[in-house]
Amino acid sequence: xxxxxxxxxxxxxxxxxxxxxxxxxxxxxxxxxxxxxxxxxxxxxxxxxxxxxxxxxxxxxxxxxxxxxxxxxxxxxxxxxxxxxxxxxxxxxxxxxxxxxxxxxxxxxxxxxxxxxxxxxxxxxxxxxxx
Length: 131
Fold this sequence. Notes:
By secondary structure, the chain is α+β, with helices and mostly antiparallel strands. The protein has one domain: HIT family, subunit A (2-Layer Sandwich). 31% of the residues lie in helices and 19% in strands. It has helices at residues 5-10, 56-73, 114-130, and strands at 18-21, 25-29, 39-43, 78-82, 93-98. Strands 1-2-3-5-4 form a five-stranded antiparallel beta sheet. The longest helix has 18 residues, at 56-73. The mean pLDDT is 93.
C-alpha cells in the first residue's frame, strides 16, 4: 500500500532497527517503545489485520523465534503480545519483554538513545538469526 509506513520500511525507504528478516516477515524495534526491546513483527505482504495473514502459523513462528532471543538477551520476567494494530493499518504484532515492575497493561512510551536501540537490535538479531 503506497502510504503505509511499514510498507516503506519493508522497501527500505525508511530506516529501522532490524531484529529479524526472512522472505515473508520483518521484525524491528518500535521507535516508540513501551519497554526496552519492544519489537514489531510484520508480514512483508500488506494485510490490514493479523488474522488476515495467510501464513498465520509461520507468522507466529517468527514471533516465537524473537521471544526466544529476548529470553536469552534481555532476560525478562514475562513477555506480552499485542495485536490491536490501530495506529498503523498494516498487520503487526507487538512483542514486549517485561520486568517485574512493569505491571501496567500498556506501559508509557519510553525514550531510549539511538545507541541503546542499535545495541539492543544487534543483540536480538544475532541470537534470532541462529535460533
